[in-house]
């Protein structure tokens, strides 16, 4: 009986943890950015963001030149200079040098649509 009770408690705890991100987190990211988080993951690979950043959930994204992008949804600032809002995130992704000319992050020619999708993905990273 005790093992069944422990097993049920573990399943309940896992279901609560899954609710913290998962579909609900993806939905909130999509609503706040207008982007598609699934496509955003693809665009992160397309633009090669993982060559400079460690990005959870992105295969091969193990770069160490830029900061790790884990927990982006919870951070206060983007690039150390912008308040973390969806609009600012997209602005930074599209043209980081226009925000901070001294940043090492290059302008990769990211389109507005792609920036929205990338931001959508990054906002799933709690």
Give a description of the structure.
- The protein contains six helices and two strands; from the N terminus they run αααββααα.
- With 126 residues, it is mainly α.
- It has a single domain, classed as Cytochrome Bc1 Complex, Chain D, domain 2.
- A two-stranded antiparallel sheet has the order 1-2.
- α3 crosses α6 and α4 packs across α6.
- The protein starts with a helix and ends with a helix.
How are the SSEs ordered, and which strands pair?
Elements: H1 2-20, H2 22-33, H3 37-47, E1 77-78, E2 82-83, H4 86-94, H5 96-99, H6 112-122
Antiparallel strand pairs: 1-2
How many helical stretches? 6
Radius of gyration: 17 Å
Largest sheet: 2 strands, antiparallel
Average of pLDDT: 84
Assess the beta-strand content as a share of residues: under 5%
CATH class: Mainly Alpha
CATH superfamily caption: Cytochrome c-like domain
Helix content: 40-55%
CATH-defined architecture:
Orthogonal Bundle
Question: How many domains make up the coordinates?
Answer: 1
- How far the N terminus sits from the C terminus, by CA atoms, comes to 36 Å
What structural class do helix, strand and pairing data support? mainly alpha
Query: What overall form do the CA principal axes indicate?
Result: globular
Report the uncertain regions: 1-21
Query: What strand line-up does the widest sheet have?
Result: 1-2
- State the order of secondary-structure elements, H for helix, E for strand: HHHEEHHH
What is the number of E strands? 2
CATH topology: Cytochrome Bc1 Complex, Chain D, domain 2
């Amino acid at each position: 009986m005790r093992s069944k009770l422990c097993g049920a408690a573990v399943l309940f705890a896992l279901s609560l943890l899954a609710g913290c991100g998962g579909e609900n987190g993806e939905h909130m990211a999509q609503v706040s950015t207008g982007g598609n988080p699934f496509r955003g993951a693809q665009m992160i690979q397309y633009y090669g963001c993982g060559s400079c950043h460690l990005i959870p959930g992105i295969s091969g994204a193990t770069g160490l030149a830029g900061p790790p992008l884990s927990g982006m949804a919870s951070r206060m600032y983007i690039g150390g200079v912008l308040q973390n809002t969806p609009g600012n995130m997209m602005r930074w992704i599209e043209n980081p040098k226009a925000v901070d000319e001294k940043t090492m992050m290059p302008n990769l020619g990211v389109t507005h649509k792609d920036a929205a999708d990338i931001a959508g993905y990054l906002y799933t990273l709690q």
